[in-house]
Amino acid sequence: MGRQRSSGHSGDSRRYADWINAAYDDLRAARTLAEDNTLNNVTAFHCQQCVEKALKGFILYRSGSSADGHNLTWLCRRAVSLDPGFSQWMDESAGLNRYYIETRYPTDVPTEIGDDRIPVLLSMASDLFGYVADQLELTDQLELWEAY
Question: Counting Cβ atoms within 10 Å, is residue 23 exposed (0-12), middle (13-18) or buried (19+)?
Fold first, then answer.
């Protein structure tokens, strides 16, 4: 998959397939990391990133404009306005939102993510990503993509 970048202010790709490709990489990373329960925070971060990038790719595809920000609830609400099917992830997006910052930086009170939470996060990321890939008719192409 080519990596053509825009000259926009943020440097973010204006190609929706780039976003889906990057989301797929995050999903595959989360699945791999989930095999080691000492990496739950990193797994949760990659689940959050998968959902964020998949939503941004979908929004770009359907609206023609990019979506800034990292708030999954806002991005999901925007996706719902383009496709009501995304409403099924509104509640889960709020829960996954917290893993954007809390899992990336050390804090005085570390975020602890139990082993029982990881399958829930992986399921949400997998389901939403699969929905986006289906809507964009990319599902059959994913295995052909190189890591973004």
Answer: buried
Question: Taking the CA atoms of the chain, what radius of gyration do you get in angstroms?
Answer: 15
What does residue 15 show for φ and ψ, rounded to 5 degrees? -105, 115
Q: Rounded to two decimals, what is the model's pTM?
A: 0.86
Burial class from Cβ neighbours inside 10 Å (0-12, 13-18, 19+) for residue 84 reads exposed
SS3 content of the chain, % helix, strand, coil (to 5): 65, 0, 35
**Amino acid making up residue 35:** E
Please, is 65 exposed, middle or buried when counting C-beta atoms within 10 Å of its C-beta (0-12, 13-18, 19+)? exposed
Q: Residue 117: enclosing H or E segment and its boundaries? A: helix 117-135
**What is the per-residue pLDDT across 82-105, written as a single tens digit (0 to 9) for each?**
999 999 999 988 888 888 666 666
Closest CA to 26 of 137, 122, 102: 122
**Token pair of 85, please?**
């099917």
